[in-house]
Amino acid sequence: MEIKVAKTAGFCFGVSRAIDIVEKLVAEGKRVCTLGAIIHNPQKVRELEEKGVRIVDSPDEVKSGETLVIRSHGVAASVTDRIKELGVSCSDATCPFVLKIHRIVAEHSKNGDTILIAGDKDHPEVQGIIGHCFSECHTFMNCDELDKLFEDVPNLRQKPVCAVVQTTFDRTEWKKTLKKLQKLYTNAKIFDTICSATSDRQSEAEILASESDLMLVIGGKHSSNTNKLYHICKSKCDKTYLIESAPELPMDALRTAGQIGITAGASTPASIIKEVLVTMTEEIKNTLESEAEPNFEDLLEESFKNYNTDGRVTGVVVGITPTEVRVDVGRKQTGIIPLSELSNDPTAKAEDLVKVGDELNLIIMKTNDQEGTILLSKRLLDAQKGWDEIVKAEEEKTVVTGVVTEIVKGGVIAVSNGVKVFIPASLATATRGESLDGLLKQEVSFRIIETTRQRKRAVGSIRSVLSDERKQKAEAFWADAEVGKKYTGTVKSLTSYGAFVDIGGIDGMVHISELSWNRIKHPSEVVNVGDTIEVYIKALDQEKGKISLGYRKDEDNPWEILKNQYPVGTECEVEIVGLTQFGAFARIIPGIDGLIHVSQISNERVEKPQDVLSVGQKVNVKITAIDFDAKRISLSMKALLADEAPAEEAAETEEAAE
Ligand code: SF4
After folding, report:
1. Whose alpha carbon is nearest atom 7 of ligand 1?
2. In this structure, how many other beta carbons lie within 10 angstroms of the beta carbon of residue 45?
């Protein structure tokens, strides 16, 4: 039997944020109520109820002194208005992805568009979206319902429409309806607002289900996204079961399955997924434990024997030196803890770890009656407790912190809970090949990815935490991102076709043509790695994760400068930059060249421009024509000579008169 759990199983960004908000308020001692169940998971809701969190159906039910939490689904504008009217203390946990839809429909309905929403009209998220529409709006669940809308609603095809989609909508169904919408309307404003957490979860579930003999979908039976996951998996794997918790496991079917896949809805807590896993694997675990492998406690006891121990004692610190700590253990001998036995951190100082009067639990390593001393270890006992914490952190995939104490061959050693954890170089930084030097003596956060009981060996990954942080930042970015929005970013790398810019945890690209109004050969002519620059979003493709950025500014556009400062008739100095048979090209301002036709060089006949002009020469010209559409400018040297002619003629006349 092989069990594979989807990486995307469990709480999504929005749900986890909402739960955090509620739990933080409870921890602060606030009396909390939520507008509807905070998530579609009865177990988690019950757990919160036990902590005093009440569910209310409307702001009018909030009691004095209570804080109301709006869940991630969001609410209609009228509900937030009522909350303000009543003066209710409120924490808004509406997911930013949902808030973005509210903004879109509010803006477009104010402009008179009819709003079409792909989604379940009875789902709270869709009801909240409807509550932000100020014009006619309709919902549909699939292509058939969309067809019916066009039959039932008079003149719908003639109206300007804006379409959005429920964040948890089935992506395959959306693709079908999108095609239909685009066919019916050539100029509909369509926004793909399915959130990335949902599409990632659905895609992974679909692949996992197609590879599995039996598929388990864990989640609330009333949760819309869990039900969608169930249907997606069922279409790929006949034996798909939707269960809310471990007691509902289809044990008979499980016993005969070879490959089992597990996924879970966005509102399924990790503890429930774990409970399901533990229950399923109990049999395997029992088998493993019955094998000869000794457990950690056995190993520790075994290691004590090597130290000629006669047990554990409690001692009180009576003296501290840089090399050892003296302890009173209530015996005639003096208790000594060498610095190396105080902690696993070789850089730690004794005075920072303990102070006189501290009571410590210790292991006796050696008794020396002749010298009247007992050699003690705090490190070994801490290591036992610490090891338990590390194993728990591995099982629960929680993030632990530790200080990097050494840079070793192939990685670094970080000490967490008194246990040395090896972090391979490939998992110690955000990208491969980065220097590890900066990590020394730093506190770092990491996940435990492997533990070996027998050797008490733990392996960690800093990268896992960094990539989660990056993912969260990316989700927050996509929830807010829109074309035209400005960012201050850092240039991360340059290629021949553009510059990659970090705009706060996510990278976008400025194409080389967007870096400058002038023609450049390489982005390094304008920006360098490490530069802080102002950019704005030119285009977005959330499905492909592509962000196109703009850098050059309209006010620097040389054609704008030309329009404002060099109208037709302007006389100015230009530099010859190229010569052809039919004329000379001359630079008026950087980025703008004009043509002096051979016939416009002189009053005299010029055979070839090269006969009278050379590249680099500066000459005076008059701008005689500008074609902004064709981007062509005509210049004339002759026009200036013609202007000067009357003056010369006048001089000649004066001379003749004398
Ligand atoms: S929009 Fe996405 S991230 Fe937000 S709560 Fe819904 S599923 Fe979760």
Report:
1. 198
2. 18
Q: Candidates 11, 12, 94: which one to mutate for ligand 1, based on the most atoms within 8 Å of Cβ? A: 12
Tell me the two tokens of residue 328.
Answer: 């009173």
- Angstrom distance (rounded) from CA 584 to CA 610: 8
| CA distances from residue 437 to 105, 346, 416, 521, 640 in whole angstroms, order as listed | 50, 17, 19, 36, 68
Tell me the CATH class for 2-92.
alpha beta
Interval between CA 204 and ligand 1 midpoint (Å) = 16
Reported as a single tens digit per residue, the pLDDT across 55-91 is 999 999 999 999 999 999 999 999 999 999 999 999 9
Interstrand relation of 592-597 and 583-589 (parallel, antiparallel or unpaired): antiparallel
DSSP state of 439: G
Contact status, residue 237 vs residue 209, Cβ threshold 8 Å: yes
Give me ligand 1 centre to Cα 72, in Å.
7
Catalytic residue numbers read: 125
The residue written with tokens 């930013």 in the block is 96
Helix (H) or strand (E) holding 11: none
Determine if the pTM surpasses 0.90: no
For ligand 1, residues with CB inside 6 Å are 12-15, 72, 95, 97-98, 167-168, 195, 197-198, 266
pLDDT digit string, tens, across residues 562-581: 999 999 999 999 999 999 99
- For ligand 1, atom 3, the nearest C-alpha belongs to 14
| Distance from residue 13's CA to the centre of ligand 1 (Å) | 6
CATH class given for the domain over 96-194: alpha beta
Distance 97 CA to ligand 1 centre (A): 7
Structure tokens at 326: 């003296």
Q: Counting atoms of ligand 1 from 1, which one is nearest the CA of 98? A: 1
- In this structure, CATH architecture of domain 297-377: Beta Barrel (2.40)
Cα–Cα–Cα angle for 81, 85, 86, nearest 5°? 120
Instruction: Return residue ranges of the chain for CATH 2.40.50.140.
Output: 297-377, 383-467, 481-552, 558-646
State the CATH class of domain 558-646: mainly beta
Burial 640-649 (b: 16+ CB within 10 A, else e): ebeeeeeeee
CA distances to 165, 171, 318, 373, 608 from 92, rounded to whole Å, are: 22, 28, 54, 63, 76
